[in-house]
Specification:
The complex is a heterodimer of chains A (167) and B (422).
Chain A (H helix, E strand, L loop, with lengths): L3 E7 L6 H4 L9 H6 L9 H4 L5 E4 L11 H8 L4 E4 L4 H9 L4 E3 L14 E5 L4 E4 L4 E3 L5 H9 L15
Chain B lengths: L5 H9 L9 E5 L2 E5 H4 L3 H6 L10 E4 L9 H16 L4 E3 L5 H6 L9 E4 L13 E4 L2 H10 L1 E5 L3 E7 L8 H12 L8 E6 L7 H10 L7 E4 L3 H11 L17 E6 L6 E3 L7 E3 L6 E2 L2 E4 L7 H11 L9 E4 L4 H10 L1 H8 L2 E2 L20 E4 L15 E4 L2 H10 L1 E2 L11
Parallel strand pairs in B: 2-3, 2-5, 3-4, 5-6, 8-9, 8-11, 9-10, 15-16, 15-18, 16-17, 18-19
Antiparallel strand pairs in B: 1-7, 12-13, 14-20
The chains are: A alpha/beta (167), B alpha/beta (422).
The complex binds iron/sulfur cluster.
Iron/sulfur cluster (SF4) binds next to loops of chain B.
Keywords (chain B): 4Fe-4S, Iron, Iron-sulfur, Lyase, Metal-binding
GO molecular function (chain B): 3-isopropylmalate dehydratase activity; 4 iron, 4 sulfur cluster binding; metal ion binding
Organism (chain B): Actinophytocola xanthii
């Protein structure tokens, strides 16, 4: 996992996947999926996202639907990582499976130290976030299982090459 | 050795690697569920990797989101899904038969004690009949389709005990909304909710499905009822006999928390916009005019919901300011409702009864909300923008409350006071 550098987009608690990516933008067309990111919440966010930007949020990020279009939209916009107080289960699995690092604050109070537009660098392996003021915010180190999927480059890389077809 | 909960036992029974000390266990699954919108997301990768389905008899696929498709783009997605299912020769492809979660619990693949995964968060609903079932994303489901396995972390369990007797005007929806009010949107995060029904009359099976369905709104991984005679009745009626295993927790099972819920005090609840946990007793609600009423989705739309709505609408009319959309959860439910006369009663009263599918629940079709719409819905999520326009507002309630509000043209705190209770 390489170091991610970009600006912070800050969100609150319980940001559900319908708000992250409204159902109206569900599609197999990557361009449509990309444009839908946070569209209802604030249509000005998506056009201003730059590769390497980091989503920062409060509790229960990604609750709700399991639609992986929400992960696709985040990745298609070049968001490099999501840092939150904690994550909803399905979202966390989906993100990890697709090689999008999701890390939690070691101390939830550190959320208050971040603001939209701030420049940060996230070191997934080290589990740290550095701000432009050179503050270091510790994150919770990912477990062995998550590291294994990261190292492989996503869950699909752990598949047997081709599974044996059924007789 | 401390006692085990239902999810402990089901995960233990399905573990397929020896390394049982690791946090994540590799488990065999008994069944996989998928629908058009999520399965379509995995087909390209599945084919690119040259995969085949590990056991096609254990897969249930249903086109419920786009059934039938409302746009050309969705028709293309639907066709892609259907041709995938046919090329893979999946025998349980349920074409236009209703919402996948309802179809799963109507099917023999879903058995007590089973471990089931599905490409949709409400897969958890099968917990209503004693299965440990959970939703995952397309990539996880692709992996399971190819291998018959997945990884699972042992969840902590919260026991929820129901006591007392539910008032006749309240139902499973009110119970689970009350629980959401207690636990919030993340109170069950990563947890298994284990429901112990010690209530006076026992919750009916439809109420249990409504509760298990919305366990995911509390963040839970499983929402499983301790199987009892209601469960056994359901299986015997469905399969002719009990085929699965009634997995019950040990008497000394270790729970992270125990919640006691006295149902006798439980009057109707509503969740206000824009969170299913934004719950108040209906009697405390500020009156609000509605433009739309929706009875449907996998959260309800079952026979008892249609029966309650039909009872409310007998010899009454839907308010002229309200569009009332009704969608039975499956074609099976639809047929039963037809035979019972509910469809006729609802139609006479002015409701629109639509073909079984997700419909307006996910903002897909058959009643999507505009900016000025205020909806009272028996679905499971009132997240902002989910049912349509970002500015539309959805209140969640039981089918009975939805029907009463449809007649009144408003959600009011006195909905159960002056309409003549039966
Ligand atoms: S009815 Fe609603 S919640 Fe249920 S599967 Fe369909 S879109 Fe999802």
């Amino acid at each position: 996992m390489t170091v991610i550098g970009g600006r912070v987009w800050l969100f609150g608690d319980d940001l559900n996947t319908d708000v992250i990516h409204p159902p109206a933008f569900y599609s197999l067309d990557p361009d449509k999926v990309r444009r839908g990111l946070f569209h209802g919440y604030d249509p000005d966010i998506q056009p201003n996202i730059r590769p390497g930007d980091v989503v920062v949020a409060g509790r229960n990020f990604g609750c709700g639907s399991s639609r992986e279009t929400s992960i696709r939209a985040i990745k298609l916009n070049g968001i490099g990582a999501v840092i939150a107080v904690d994550f909803a289960r399905i979202f966390f699995r989906n993100a990890t499976n697709n090689g999008l690092p999701c890390l939690t604050f070691a101390d939830a109070d550190d959320l208050a130290r971040l603001r939209t537009g701030q420049r940060v660098r996230v070191h997934p392996e080290e589990a740290t976030l550095r701000t432009e003021e050179d503050e270091t915010i510790p994150l919770t180190p990912p477990g062995e299982f998550v590291r294994r999927i990261w190292a492989a480059g996503g869950l699909l890389e752990l598949l047997p090459r081709a599974n044996a077809p059924r007789p | 050795m401390t006692g085990r909960t239902i999810s402990d036992k089901v995960i233990d029974a399905h573990t397929c690697d020896e390394n049982d000390t690791s946090l994540y266990r590799r488990v065999n699954v008994d069944a996989v569920l998928g629908h058009d919108a999520t399965t379509a997301l995995l087909i390209d990768d599945f084919e690119r990797h040259g995969l085949s389905i590990w056991d096609r008899d254990r897969v249930l696929l249903a086109n419920d989101h786009f059934s039938p498709p409302a746009t050309a783009e969705r028709a293309d997605i639907s066709n892609r899904f259907l041709s995938f299912a046919r090329e893979q020769a999946v025998p349980n492809l349920m074409l236009d038969r209703g919402i996948c979660h309802q179809l799963l619990v109507e099917h023999r693949l879903c058995q007590a004690g089973g471990l089931i995964v599905g490409a949709d968060s409400h897969t958890i609903m099968a917990g209503g009949i004693g299965a440990c079932a959970t939703g995952m994303g397309a990539t996880d489901i692709l992996f399971t389709l190819a291998t018959g396995t997945t990884w699972m972390r042992r969840p902590e369990t919260i026991a929820v005990r129901f006591r007392g007797t539910l008032p006749t005007q309240s139902g499973g929806r009110d119970v689970v909304l009350a629980l959401l009010g207690i636990l919030g949107e993340s109170g069950g995060q990563y947890r298994s909710l284990e429901f112990h029904d010690d209530s006076g009359t026992r919750l009916c099976q439809d109420d249990r499905f409504a509760i298990a369905n919305m366990a995911v709104e509390i963040g839970a991984k499983f929402g499983v009822f301790v199987p009892d005679e209601v469960t056994v009745d359901y299986y015997v009626k469905r399969d002719g006999e009990l085929l699965g295993t009634l997995v019950r927790p040990d008497a000394d099972a270790r729970y992270e928390r125990v919640i006691d819920l006295d149902l006798s005090a439980l009057d109707p609840r509503v969740a206000k916009p824009w969170s299913p946990a934004n719950v108040v007793p209906l009697r405390e609600l500020e009156p609000v005019r509605i433009t739309t009423a929706f009875l449907g989705s996998c959260a309800s739309g079952r026979l008892s919901d249609l029966r309650d709505a039909a009872a409310e609408l007998t010899d009454r009319k839907v308010h002229p300011g309200v569009r009332f959309v009704v969608i039975p959860a499956s074609v099976e439910v639809f047929k039963q409702a037809l035979r019972a006369g509910y469809v006729e009663t609802l139609t006479e009263a002015g409701a629109i009864v639509n073909h079984s599918s997700c419909g307006a629940c996910g903002g897909i079709d058959k009643g999507v909300l505009g900016a000025d719409d205020v909806c009272v819905s028996s679905s499971n999520r009132n997240f902002r923008g989910r049912m349509g326009h970002w500015d539309s507002r959805t209140y969640l309630a039981s089918a009975r409350t939805v029907a009463r509000a449809a007649v009144r043209g408003a959600l009011t705190p006195d909905l159960y006071r002056d309409q003549g209770d039966e």
